[in-house]
TrEMBL record:
Domain Lumazine-binding: from-to ranges: 1-96, 97-193
Keywords: Repeat, Riboflavin biosynthesis, Transferase
MF-aspect GO terms: riboflavin synthase activity
SUPFAM superfamilies noted in UniProt: Riboflavin synthase domain-like
InterPro entries: ATP_synth_asu-like_sf, Lumazine-bd, Lumazine-bd_dom, Riboflavin_synthase-like_b-brl
Gene symbol of the encoding locus: ribE
UniProt catalytic activity: 2 6,7-dimethyl-8-(1-D-ribityl)lumazine + H(+) = 5-amino-6-(D-ribitylamino)uracil + riboflavin
Name by which UniProt lists this protein: Riboflavin synthase
PANTHER family: RIBOFLAVIN SYNTHASE (PTHR21098:SF12), RIBOFLAVIN SYNTHASE ALPHA CHAIN (PTHR21098)
Transferase as UniProt keyword: yes
Length: 213
């Protein structure tokens, strides 16, 4: 479990490609401080497991499903990545619940500076907007952000100067891809209300039949 508050921007040291899988080695002295084999680290929003580490870097395996579903497949040596260690039970919880399980990707279609903020408009993969609401939370490349506007499959977020400087998103531009994780609680609610198990989903007729007018 993560908070979406990025701890460090690491650098991809090496990428070893399998037929459908990957092995990444990432430089970050801050992140490896206190790390153990088997620990979870969010890499651009993707929860990955530490398999090897020393005082300068850590290595993770990326399975085929993750390669296919995220932008991890686009990483090359020298590229920066957002990093966050799994949240500790005794720490402040300043972002929102982020699982590190990517729902899909998005494409930056507009980037605009407004006063001290930078606005990003991101075109979401089909179906992801159903789990988003204005003023709700979304994790973009692992960064916890607030949705300022939602128009169809276009989502708008705004970065304050600190977030723009200290996350990978601040370095991305129009045409770049990002990982999207929608709000965990919202996904459970939508699934429950639209599930065909037990009910046929929530509709006006369903509410009327159960005493709601």
């Amino acid at each position: 479990m993560f908070t979406g508050l990025i701890e460090d921007i690491g650098t991809v040291q090496s990428v070893k490609m399998g037929r459908q899988s990957m092995e990444l080695t990432i430089l970050s002295e801050k992140i490896v401080d206190g790390v153990q084999i088997g620990d979870s680290i969010s890499v651009n929003g993707v929860c990955l497991t530490v398999t090897v580490f020393n005082k300068e870097y850590f290595t993770v395996d990326v399975m085929p499903e993750t390669v296919k579903a995220s932008t991890i497949r686009l990483l090359k040596p020298g590229m920066p990545v957002n990093l966050e260690r799994a949240m500790s039970a005794n720490g402040r919880f300043g972002g929102h619940f982020v699982s590190g399980h990517i729902d899909g990707t998005g494409t930056i279609v507009k980037k605009e500076k407004k006063e001290n903020a930078v606005y990003y408009v991101i075109k979401l993969d089909e179906g992801l907007s159903a789990y988003c609401i204005p003023k709700g939370s979304v994790a973009i490349d692992g960064t916890s952000l607030t949705i300022f506007e939602l128009a169809g499959d276009l989502l708008t977020v705004s970065l304050i100067p600190l977030t723009h400087q200290d996350t990978v998103l601040g370095r991305k531009n129009v045409g770049d891809f990002v990982n999207i994780e929608t709000d965990m609680i919202g996904k459970y609610i939508v699934h429950h209300l639209t599930s065909s198990k037990g009910t046929q989903g929530i509709s006006t007729s369903f509410l009327a039949e159960h005493g709601f007018y």
